[in-house]
Design brief:
This protein is an alpha/beta fold. Helix content is 20%, strand content 26%. The chain contains 28 helices and 70 strands.
Length: 1395
């Protein structure tokens, strides 16, 4: 009996079915007590098991059920673990210690193993799903969809989620148990009507997404068994096979690194041989108790990866199986792997000079020093002296093998590899690598029969890292050899697969090159896989003489690759035999019902389709009309329908009915059979293709060449497209009789002539005469609509989608900044590149990149390889240089305009279009600023060789890493940010727990200042927040923080003022962080009734919402501000000092025993209170955690970090908020409606305000008196609303005064200006022009900041942060307080100076 549904209200919620590894049905009901209040699970097997199998094993099944129930009954008397199953340590058992590969086996061991650290992966797991998902869509999808997984994660089992799969459209979490002892989780959803889905959507409709959740427990050794405990592990080693992505979050909130989305690691969805990924354990890992982590897995069923269940299991129900292995890493240093690249030796000579030694850094960053080969008869030299490894990274050390003599007896070599510790003291580490070598005797010493039995020989090549391929030698030895065969394997087939080698007939006069394409799944034989294939062929040609071109064969995905090569390089691949090939991914696994199609803008969808069109072979089949193609397909293929091959033949014949293409359909054969190429008929055809050349007189002279990306296509009939008019659109050449051409979307082309006689060609009606002889001529549009001979290079223009970055002339460089987040991203990206694509990558810092990745006319050391720049949360100095246009054809100006290939573009006021600026237009406001390049960057010219152009692929760190899901979403009506994630972070603050002990929790002490702000700016609200929070802190109460309020009482979340939409309430944590916004005060910050600092920690600030939860109306005590002022003698008319107000108010609240205190009435802190009276409070505030631990929010810091190139020399910026930005003078320049306020200040006879009235301030402002009103007003306006000339003079004076105090030890030089201003454009332009003429390197203003829509409502806080960081700040002394409260010096906190 199978029970698979349960009622929840009026809808059905579906429980997935567990696939048992057993071959008989197993049903267990009421199996366990669900700690999350879920119904008891049911252990089920696949529904496709035949009834007779159940009947045959029914007695065994019943016995197993009884045993399992008894086992669970026994376990119920043991203490439980967090996941509801017994903790192995509470049973006197333990996991084993780490194996040689770093993993722990997940099964019970004896008590003796408790002497070591151990890790345990729970067999209990929760599943949520299924949800619709299409092939490869998971990387554009939140891995945890539809939930978020912050830290700490709260598991809500009662919530339901919408899905289009089940009847009723509702799914929910279900608890399951894996009966496998190896960390394998297997789930089906038998009650989904999969057959009905297949009938409407095809087999791709079966693809789906699920979320798995389980527990990892790390346990220390038993203290009673270990007198001297071993050191704790520094990393978890995690491998998730057949899963897309995974994340690990600690359950203890104190161990959380961030409350936001976790760092998602790549799963090994292709289930390839791979090293585990290292996830750093917290340094505060407990050595006395077990620590638990949540493991989340994006389990995505892809039909092309896991197969059609109808074929594999005779079932409609797909099975999702994920295997998890987890280990502990305690080792240090670098270890040698076993996946090396070493060539075989043929007749004593190496088959290739590329050698790669696999190394893994277990901990720390290491740089190669040298490699010594002990007693080697050849030389091994380093090709990359800057080869480095970061923690957890695996790479192959590239070595070049140079031979001067034969070596026929050596069976192996011993290498001593020396590395330098870059994280520590620079000490040296030596590791040994023993490398076996295989020898093949001279081919001419063997008989033909013996040569036929030679196993495939391993050849190595540079692509651009060490890579390998296999060779099958010809049966007859004689040079030159005939056309070589290039053999492309199918998806999931390892390079070493013997069945694939044996299926390829050996040729009498030709070599067979079996290429790997980087990995067993390859890259669909495009990009880096194609690069690897051509490199292998080139290495063979460098040793052996043979005919030009290649015959390409391939099966399945390799057959698709054969179509790809033959149609993109028709003059090179004149013959091909694709077998069981699909024509394009969208035809093979349709994505018509993808999840994203419901949300995608049609224009953007067109761009996406254009970027992937290069993979659709059917669009280029017309290029095969001059080639010989034999298409093999099994008539009963259940994987790739024979329809694909039939269509290919039909399309080619529609281009030219005389084309030499034939279909070899083999009846009653499935996707693969061993004789796919070796059947006598097909083997004979292959031999014919190899042994004969295609004669030009037998092929059509008239044809059409279709190209999408010129650099990925070769010539056809001698004609080649080198550049298109519009990139991303088809370019075509219609050739008539070989020499007459009509072009479409072509701006550069070439023709290679083999005729000795002079001849004429015609291009678009323009006749051009050429000399005879073998030569290639390039033609370009002449600017008048005609064509002319060009001196341009015959190399095609490089372009294409972003994945083009993977095709690199050197290992990919991943440039990080100093932020650990970007290093984590780089480590995970490097793992995915190495594991899934076989690509090498070098992780370096931005500071290293400026010296190692130089690409100038005189230094081309950094020109060969492509570069990935990771930027954020802080800036990337190397990336900033790129954005300023030093070595790319794209540069970004400070006002949002950009330059591409010499043309300047300006955003015209809409968000989705750009207009070309006139040639004489400025790229900025006023005089355009030209940034000063680093000294090593040459601006006179940029190398533009084939691999020389550095290709940059920027990762915007404002977005989450893996899936591209945004941190903020825009309101569809008003374009305002969506702050739901920040509201959620505030809601889940750990102090929002009613069960916490005093002085927090439901019985804690709270102070809510119930004061309504109305259309008051952020700086005014912030000063009020900080002073009110100080009162709460001094009274040992939790401050109740409120959001930033613009117009309380508005009917909706947004309000329109003067045609400008604003958000009514913005969470405080969008602006600031620190104790006032809910962060910890730290130990020893409690306040005793006497006012002295106590040993306990001050209660953390809470939100308005939590206050409403724990403080209902009946528990609240209201304190009226006016009544307390009168009673304590602090009437506003008496102007009490701020220090007195802080002390009296805090004592008032301290003496109250009431839990929930709400302070109501008028503003406690009036504008007058922030006048000179505020200075008396400085001794209190300067030591307060509210200021010493104050930080701007990550959102605000991100703005400043992104724009740091405007503010300082980024190579010297250490990104410490407390450290001034060297060379920057910031100035507060308020304009607009401020003139009326300035006049009011005049008539009020106001003095410098707030902290600006400190005696330590550099400026003093004696209040003008006894002077005419007009003169008095001018005096105030000079300080409050200065003119351009006055500003220039003031800047000149401050610069002179500041730099006059320069010393050799502490030099002072100001070279950059930044204005915090709302001035109109004409004023800004005039001011900028005047100041640049004064010799300032740059003059930036608030409007120059690059700010995205998610940040546009907190931009004023970014201005304030810049003012806080500036080396010199010139403020508006009579204006409202600007929050640049403190500077951190060697002497502690001092009030900032009013320069």
């Amino acid at each position: 009996m199978v029970v698979s549904t349960r009622r929840q209200g009026d809808s059905l919620s579906y429980k997935p079915k567990i696939s048992s590894p057993l071959s008989y049905a197993t049903v267990v009901s009421a199996y366990e007590t669900d700690v999350d209040n879920n119904p008891p699970p049911y252990i089920l097997t696949r529904s496709q098991l035949r009834k007779r199998q159940r009947n045959a094993f029914l007695p065994v099944a019943v016995a197993l059920v009884v045993l399992l129930m008894l086992y669970r009954f026994c376990l119920r008397f043991a203490p439980g673990s967090p996941d509801g199953l017994p903790n192995p340590h509470s049973l006197g058992t333990s996991r084993t210690s780490a194996n040689a590969d770093g993993y722990n086996d997940v099964f019970y061991q004896d008590r003796l193993d408790r002497s070591r650290w151990s890790v345990y992966v729970s067999p209990v797991f929760d599943t949520l799903g299924p949800f619709p998902l299409q092939a490869r869509e998971q990387y554009f999808f939140s891995p945890s969809y539809p939930i978020s997984v912050p830290c700490p994660y709260v598991h809500n089992t009662s919530k339901t989620y919408y899905s289009s799969f089940p009847d009723g459209g509702i799914v929910s979490w279900q608890r399951q148990l894996s009966v496998r002892p190896t960390g394998s989780y297997s789930v089906t959803y038998p009650d989904i009507r999969w057959a009905s889905i297949r009938a409407t959507q095809g087999w791709s409709g079966l693809q789906h997404h699920s979320v798995f959740r389980t527990t990892i427990t790390v346990s220390p050794p038993a203290s009673d068994l270990v007198p001297l405990p071993p050191p704790p592990p520094h990393s978890l080693l995690v491998s998730v096979s057949r899963g897309s992505l995974f994340a690990i979050q600690p359950r203890d909130s104190e161990l959380c690194m961030t409350s936001d989305s976790p760092s998602w690691g790549f799963g090994n969805i292709y289930d390839m041989p791979a090293k585990p990924q290292a996830f750093r354990l917290p340094s505060t890992l407990s050595v006395n108790a077990s620590t638990s982590f949540d493991l989340f897995i994006s389990a995505d069923y892809e039909i092309r990866l896991f197969g059609d269940p109808l074929v594999m299991d005779e079932s409609d129900v797909p099975v999702t199986e994920v295997a998890v292995r987890v280990g502990l890493e305690v080792r240090q240093g670098v270890v040698v792997g076993d996946n090396h690249v070493v060539p075989d030796f043929l007749a004593g000579w190496s088959l290739g000079d590329a050698v790669g030694i696999e190394l893994t850094s277990l901990e720390g960053q290491w740089r190669i020093r040298d490699v010594t080969c002990i007693d080697c008869p050849f030389e091994l030299s380093l090709t990359d002296p800057n080869f480095t490894l970061v923690s957890g990274q695996t790479r192959r050390l590239p070595l070049r093998l140079v031979q001067s003599a034969r070596s026929e007896t050596l069976d192996g070599v011993n290498l001593v590899i020396s590395l330098i510790d870059l994280d520590g003291d620079g000490s040296q580490l030596l590791v040994n690598a023993n490398i076996p070598i295989s020898h093949i005797p001279r081919l001419d010493s063997l008989t033909q029969a013996q040569r036929a039995k030679i196993p495939p020989m391993l050849q190595t090549q540079w692509s651009p890292h060490p890579s390998s391929s296999f060779l099958l030698p010809p049966l007859d030895i004689g040079s030159p050899f005939k056309t070589p065969i290039l053999a492309l394997h199918g998806a999931g087939v390892p390079l070493s697969a013997s069945f694939w080698h044996n299926a390829i007939p050996r040729q009498k006069h030709s070599w067979v090159v079996i290429v790997g394409g980087g990995s067993e799944w390859g890259y669909d034989w495009r990009g880096p896989s194609l690069q690897d294939a051509f490199a292998a062929l080139d290495v063979l040609r460098s040793r052996e003489q043979m005919w030009e071109g290649a015959v390409v064969i391939g099966h399945s995905n390799g057959g698709q690759g054969a179509f790809h090569l033959a149609s993109r390089f028709p003059d090179f691949v004149r013959s091909a035999i694709p077998a069981a090939a699909y024509q394009s991914a969208p035809l093979y696994v349709p994505n018509t019902w993808s999840h994203g199609v419901h949300f995608l803008d049609p224009v953007l969808e067109g761009i996406l389709k254009a970027s992937t069109a290069g993979g659709d072979n059917d669009l280029f089949l017309g290029n095969l009309v001059r080639s010989r193609i034999a298409v093999i397909h099994g008539g009963d293929d259940t994987n790739v329908p024979v329809y694909h091959s039939r269509t290919a033949v039909q399309v080619v014949k529609s281009w030219d009915e005389n084309a030499d293409i034939r279909l070899l359909e083999v009846s009653e054969k499935d996707h693969w059979w061993d004789q796919v190429f070796s059947d006598p008929k097909r083997a004979g055809l292959l031999a014919h293709y190899v042994d004969t050349k295609v004669k030009d007189e037998h092929v059509p002279k008239s044809f059409t060449l279709t190209v999408l990306w010129p650099h990925e296509s070769g010539p056809m009939g001698g004609w080649r497209i080198l550049a298109t008019d519009v990139p991303g659109r088809f370019a075509r050449l219609e050739v008539e009789n070989g020499l007459t051409v009509i072009t479409s979307n072509v701006r550069l082309l070439s023709y290679t002539n083999t005729d000795a006689k002079a001849f004429d060609i015609e291009i678009d009606g323009h006749r051009i005469s050429l000399d005879g002889g073998h030569a290639t001529t390039v033609f370009a549009v002449d600017g008048k609509g005609g064509w002319q001979v060009s001196r341009a290079s015959g190399e095609p223009v490089v372009g294409g989608p972003a994945n083009r970055v993977l095709v690199s002339g050197a290992p990919l460089s991943i440039v990080t900044n100093s932020d650990p987040w970007t290093l984590s991203v780089a480590q995970r990206l490097s793992w995915a590149l190495y594991t899934q694509l076989g690509l090498d990558s070098n992780i370096i810092s931005d500071r290293e990149a400026t010296s190692l990745l130089r690409c100038t006319d005189t230094d081309k050391s950094g020109c060969a390889g492509n570069i990935v720049v990771l930027s954020g949360p802080g800036p990337n100095t190397y990336g900033n240089a790129i954005l300023e246009g030093y070595y790319s054809e794209f540069s970004l100006n400070t006002n949002g305009s950009f330059v591409f290939r010499g043309q300047r573009y300006q955003k015209p006021g809409t968000d989705n279009s750009y207009e070309l600026l006139p040639a004489n237009a400025s790229s900025g406001e006023g005089t355009p600023q030209q940034p000063t390049p680093p000294s090593w960057i040459s601006l006179s010219g940029r190398p533009a060789k084939r691999w020389g152009a550095v290709l940059f692929f920027f990762v915007a760190i404002g977005f989450a890493w893996n899936a591209g899901w945004l941190e903020f979403r825009e309101d569809p009506l008003h374009g305002l940010p969506d702050y739901r994630k920040i509201w959620e972070v505030e809601r889940k603050l750990p102090q929002h727990n009613p069960d916490l002990p005093w002085p927090e929790g439901v019985n804690g002490r709270f102070a809510k200042f119930d004061i309504v702000y109305h259309t008051i700016g952020f700086n005014n609200q912030l000063q009020d927040i900080l002073m009110s929070a100080q009162i709460a802190y001094m009274s040992n109460r939790a401050y109740v923080f409120q959001p930033y309020l613009w117009r309380p009482g508005s009917p909706g979340p947004v309000v329109n003022e003067s045609n400008h939409w604003r958000t009514v309430e913005i969470p405080l944590n969008a602006f600031i962080s620190g104790p006032a916004a809910g962060a910890r005060y730290g130990p020893g910050t409690g306040v005793a009734p006497s006012g002295e600092i106590a040993a306990w920690e001050a209660p953390r600030s809470i939100s308005y919402d939590f206050y409403d939860q724990v403080c209902p109306e009946e528990r609240r005590t209201y304190v009226n501000i006016k009544e307390v002022r009168t009673r304590l003698g602090m009437e506003e008319k008496d102007s009490p000092p701020a220090k007195e107000m802080l002390e009296k108010w805090s004592k008032e609240l301290m003496d109250m025993n009431d839990t929930c205190v709400s302070i109501t009435g008028d503003h406690l802190w009036t504008f007058d209170a922030f006048g000179p009276r505020i200075s008396s409070a400085w001794p209190i505030l300067s030591d307060s955690p509210l200021l010493t631990q104050f930080q701007w929010s990550p959102l605000v810091q991100g703005i400043v970090a992104r724009n740091m190139h405007l503010l300082t020399d980024t190579s010297k910026w250490k990104r410490k908020v407390s450290e001034p930005l060297s060379g920057l003078m910031a100035l507060h320049l308020r304009r607009g409606d401020f003139i009326e306020h300035c006049r009011n200040l005049c008539w009020w006879s106001a003095n410098y305000n707030s902290w600006n009235s400190f005696p330590e301030s550099l400026d003093k402002f004696p209040t003008p008196s006894d002077i005419p009103p007009e003169e008095k007003e001018n005096t105030y306006l000079k300080h409050c609303l200065p003119a351009v000339s006055q500003i220039v003079e003031r800047v000149r004076t401050v610069k002179r005064q500041w730099e006059a105090k320069s010393t050799d030890d502490k030099p002072r030089r100001l070279n950059k200006l930044y204005f915090l201003t709302n001035a109109e454009k004409s004023f800004r332009t005039e001011l900028r022009t005047r100041l640049l003429a004064e010799g300032w390197d740059s003059v930036s203003m608030s409007q120059d900041m690059l700010i995205n829509k998610a940040e546009k409502e907190v931009d004023m806080a970014a201005d304030m942060m810049v003012a806080q960081l500036a080396e010199v700040f010139v403020g508006n002394g009579v204006g409202a307080v600007l929050f640049r409260l403190v500077l951190e010096t060697d002497d502690g906190l001092i009030p900032s100076s009013q320069a």
